[in-house]
User: Fold this.
Amino acid sequence: MITDLTHLSVAAAGKMLRAREISPVELVDAFLARIERVDARIKSYLLVTAEAARARAKDAEAQIMAGGWRGPLHGIPYGAKDTFHTKGLRTCANSHVLMQQVPDHDAAIIEKLDAAGAILLGKLNTWEYGTGLGLVYHDAAFAHSTNPWKENYFTGGSSTGSGAAVAAGTAMFALGADTGGSIRAPASGCGIAGLKPTYGRVSRHGILPNCWSLDVAGPMTWTVEDCALVLQAIAGFDARDPASADVPVPDYLRALGDGVRGLTIGIARDIGHCVPIDPAILAGIDDVASVLAAAGAHVVPLVLPGSPQVYRQVTTLITGPERASAHERDFIAQGDRMGRELRDSIMAGLAARAVDYLAAQRRRGELAAAVDAAVAGVDAVLLPCTLHTAPPASDADKVKAFMSDSMTTIFNISGHPALSIRSGFDTNGLPTGAQIAGRYFDEATVLRVGHAYERARRWHERRPAV
Assistant:
């Protein structure tokens, strides 16, 4: 059935495509039909490219039938956050300012996925320019996405459409970008897997910048295994991105199913946060810890340096000036057409003092070194991601709290890889999340730990009733 096809994982669909049990045309048609059926409510897409996707699906089908299988993403339909440049296809970042922008090149990640045979379904919703903390003024070019788990509930941002699309089954996987949590927050809010790789692991060439020294792109998927498959395709050095790291890319699937026996997992229970954590979030963290311990991991206490507020303050002092520098020309020419949150953030960045920006960068270096010292002593770290489950989208204070009361910015400041995984559900049926972080460029272990928990609890077998 069509609905069943849209609920396949990337891994399962890839195997079926290779075995010719299903065709790329069937798969793409199933997703396009689901978009047609449910996306008016979910609003995960800003632009759907049905004709181009069907043409790519026919090409993929012919290649696979002729024995030209390119790999596990060949024929897999996906969506990209609308801050990723796509050649000949509007990339507006949900802004009135960029509505006429049609890039003449693809982002590096889009190039890699094209080479892997993946099929782009369209461009996914985002906060304007991919920035903000959820101060919703309803003045962007398009209405915001809603959470597939509960009508009129918040998705998390800024990769709003990416989180909603994967959860709702309107994309088999999605691309997101993360400056302070913009992959992991919507992953947590929408109950999917979202990976912020190590800073420099994935090229940002062709992605609308938010903050050069913090921006990271990564996969958002239904399962952790799918995260590994997508990361395999998009990771690697790219000289076009000055921050790209020339570090070998391992086989992320090789040890994915090896379990956690013998691994040491540091659990950061004392997060030094003055904001109460939702009981369901705490219960999820405890459940992850107990499952990992039962599977043979050594779960030990771990204290991360500083409070979440410190990381958020440093992030704010860095992102403001960098965002203003990146978008000053647009602001001067068309600031009156920008939404209030974007406009206010750029104005704050323009007003920032150079001495404060430099002090924040120095403080960042100190915090990163301290975090690395803590992370280096264990194989992975378990801690909360967001401190709350998704709130009603109409409650502005709770929406802001969902984004600001989080543990995500720690690993933007430090640059370590961090994965958001689902850890259960609260009494309202909303997903809870946990975060797994690891050593620099050791996404393989982070994914391995997340996969072990996912296989044990199988929360991914529960889908929102969209």
Observations:
- The chain has one domain: 2-461.
- The mean pLDDT is 96.
- The longest strand covers residues 418-425.
